[in-house]
Amino acid sequence: MNRSRRRNGRIWRVLAVLAVLWAGCTTSAVPATTPESTTPPAAASGPARLREAALAEPDNPAAHLVLAILAARSDPDAALVHLAELERRGWDIPPGDLFPALVDRADYQAWASRVQARAPRVSSSVVYATIPDPALIPEGIAADPDAGTLYVGSITQRKIVRIHPDGVTTDFVPAGSDGLGPVLGMHVDSARGLLWAASNSAESSPDTAPASVTGSGVFAFDLATGALRHQVRLGAGDDHLLNDLVVSADGQVFVTDSAAGAVYRLPPGAAALQPLVPPGTLHAPNGVALDEDHGRLLVAHVFGISAVEIDTGEVRALAAPEGVVTGGIDGLSLAESSLIGIQNAFGEGRVVRFDLDQAHDRIVAAHVLEAGSPHLHIPTTGAFMAGRWYYIANSHLDALGDDGALIDGASVRDPVILSLPLRPEHARLTAEERRLVAEVDARADAAVAMLERVVDINSGTMNLAGVREVGHVFAEAFERIGFETEWIAQQRQGRAGHLFARRRGASGKRVLLIGHLDTVFEADSEFQRFERLSDDRARGPGVIDIKGGDVAILHALAALDAIGALDDATITVALLGDEESPGGPASRDALIQAARASDVALGFECGLGPNAATIARRGLSEWRLEVQAKPGHSSGIFSDTAGAGAVYEAARVLADFYDALSDQPNLTVNAGLILGGTTIEHDRAHDRGVGVGKSNVIPGAAVVTGDLRALSDQQRERAKATMREIAARSLPQAAATLHFDDGYPSMAPTAGNRRLLFELDEVARALGLGPVRVIDPGRRGAADISFVAPHVPAALAGLGVDGDGWHTPAETIALDSLRVSTQRAAVLLYRLTRAQ
């Protein structure tokens, strides 16, 4: 293996666990008598120097872990002595695969089990975005708060992608552009319109051409265009790993070099990186945060966090309370006198906040913000934007081989960007909100009684009288709490109508609450009554879809009214009578008009699990494929003169649909009905029919119907274009025609929806529910909020009750979820109607 490949292999291990620690896991430990390396300091970061440094810090927990790693293979007993010392000091980071040489020892297994039991399991994050590219292998992330945009760098593909405010991901810097190698740390310089990125030597990867330039360097790209504006490189012959960087207000760039143990600065306009911290000073410096008010950098490394004076380069360790582990940090950020970092080098990755004293001279407390989440798989770096921290949850750096490319067969998932508040523990209810929650709890039995009452009224969409009766029950209840009600009849659409309830005021945001009165269970269904199964379970038609959500709306508003919190609020409730089988586009006119007069829309469909919500729902279009072919005797099939027949042509189109579209994220194309034969009769109104044919006759006609679901209008139109192109490629003597009928629009994941999700998340934390779980839009069907979403600045859906079996005779509610959903809705409404 050539030297370049050896160096790259070492670099990837630095990224995964830090190269020097990895060496201790997989090679013989270095005895205490090993002399200091005679290589230059830039390359002298091997196990011998590391061991010497660890021995010099007997009170540092990170030092004991390093010594245990270095001893594990050649002296397991010595390693376990250090692990025992860690346990005595309260070590609580599960080791993961740090100790392969010890995994078969019972004493090590017992130690690891005790640490696992002690480890915090904390969930403070919500999913912000998913990048549909499992082979991206991201490491660095940067935020542009002015544009609401995130940038994520790829190691394997040597490119930078941009996550737009609506969650859509596009390439910002294409793969390998301008000699860009694997991308690590990044930082947005908003004042100068630049994105700075650290990049390092690379060989070819499977998806890109060989790198035209080698050597580590920093690159500056134009935020508006992605064009390269500036680059500065270190020498290709030296061993460098430029890792993380920050930019000061005056335009200076500061970058860590994990391989050389250095920190460099790049003054504005300079042509070369200048050492601020000389090579060999720090052990694998990684994350860096800028403390401009105090004139220093805060740099993470193997043993902890050090302060570096910008004027002099002086380095001193940042003191921490006994037992607080500050080593092994990757990404590091500073905000509001706190550092937030990702600790991923000492075992299972986690997010930790370190609170600083007033002078930022020492750490005074540490708080684990995220640990044990199924999303976490070698989390790496993060960036602040609009008061929240956004970070890469699953880098999959362990899937890289020695050449920096993905290992064949490695299991990798789409990268997930998580978001959390800096101080999630500060989410608390006010005194008035506690009154509100108590009011909801006091009404819990009445809410269940109301649910039983309306479930026992059959309101299948086509049972018009039943839909009107349920509407009447809700109208009376809304009028009792001061709402004006209106019944909007829908005779022309062949449906019962809709109930609207309104209160008008002048304060806060104008809110639209959406439910529906109808169910899928018609009057002739055998499933008709509410049935209590246990103290917390009940079954009934529409109990979760959506009458439980309707009751949550009503009782949240009733609780708000009871404490006088609705007096100046503007709230519209829309309970539609034909959600399960809409009467046509005109039946949504009143809903869309209400949306245009609102600032926020909330949908109360059932929520696919407790404390969940969704910021996006896919739109729905129906399609119909009609095929005509030359009929004839089957003996001639496949010949140019007889052709392939209508059934083969339909099958070809469907197979090509699958091949072209089945791997598109959030896109589905379903074929629900197929008819073919010599003659066919298709009842389009009820989507059923009859096909007549014989085994010895080439069929002359076929029809296929199905649906198309997409997350955005753009995705839907791209899919339609692909489907039309496929249908046009007919087999001999056949012709296929494709028709589309757009039904529900999509509810796109907009920036406004995400901000509203964060508000709901704060409410959920304050109620003690933990972070809100964001529902995958691929798991949701169409809903009325999709008609509303394009017309309001912000919308959320899935705020209803929890249960299972909707649309089946096993439809069941978790009854306590009615109380919880009502609490969550009431507090969110309280805050929204007081917000500007």
Explain what you see.
It contains 16 helices and 44 strands. It is α+β, with helices and mostly antiparallel strands and 836 residues long. A six-stranded mixed sheet has the order 25-26-30-27-31-42, sandwiched between helices. Strands 1-24-23-22 form a four-stranded antiparallel sheet, with helices on one face. Strands 2-3-4-5 form a four-stranded antiparallel sheet, with no helix packed on it. Helix 2 (19-26) packs across helix 4 and helix 5 packs parallel to helix 6 (106-118). The longest helix is centred in the middle third of the chain and has 20 residues, at 543-562. It is globular. The chain starts with a helix and ends with a helix. The model is unreliable at 1-45 and 203-213 (pLDDT under 50).
Kindly summarize this structure in a few lines.
With 836 residues, the chain is an alpha+beta fold. It is built from 16 helices and 44 strands. A hairpin with a 5-residue loop joins strand 4 and strand 5.
List keywords for this structure.
16 helices; six-stranded mixed sheet; alpha+beta
Number of helices, counting only DSSP H or I runs of 4 residues or more = 16
Overall mean pLDDT score? 90
Overall SS class = alpha+beta
Report the strand count. Answer: 44
Radius of gyration: 31 Å
Largest sheet: 6 strands, mixed
The global form is globular
Distance between the termini: 64 Å
Q: Percent helix among the residues?
A: 10-25%
pLDDT < 50 runs, ≥5 residues: 1-45, 203-213
